[in-house]
Amino acid sequence: MKTNSEFKFLYFLVGIALGAIAALLLAPSPGEETWKYLRERSNQGLDYLNQQAGKLRQTAEGVVRKGREIVGSHRDTVDTATEAEKQAYQEERRETLGG
Q: Which alpha helices (H) appear in the chain, and where do they start and end?
């Protein structure tokens, strides 16, 4: 006499067989067409990702360009302030030493 677990395994195998038959009968297109469809969709996805990467690259270049402009204008201000401090220090030193 078969046990309960043996019946479950038998039902499992029958279910797999029925599922495979149903998949073959109800498949929307043959294998070659399916592969072609999947290949086209993956190429479309890659094209979309490449376009988005190009947009991101352009945006990043714009941000970097603006950052350089901002840093460049502040650098000029810092350089001018540093030169003024050097001159003040040298004048103070001359007065102290020459004094």
A: 4-26, 31-98
Q: Secondary structure of the chain: what % helix, strand, coil (to 5)?
A: 90, 0, 10
Domain extent listing, the chain: 4-98
pLDDT for residue 27:
73
pLDDT in tens, 81-98: 777 788 888 888 888 876
Q: Model pTM?
A: 0.44
Could you read off the pLDDT of 14-26 as tens digits, one per residue? Answer: 999 998 888 877 7
Q: Is 52 left (phi over 0), alpha (psi -120 to 50) or beta?
A: alpha
3-state SS class at 94: helix
d(CA 24, CA 27): 5
**Which one-letter DSSP state was computed for residue 30?**
-
Angle at 84 (CA atoms; ends 80, 89), nearest 5 degrees: 150
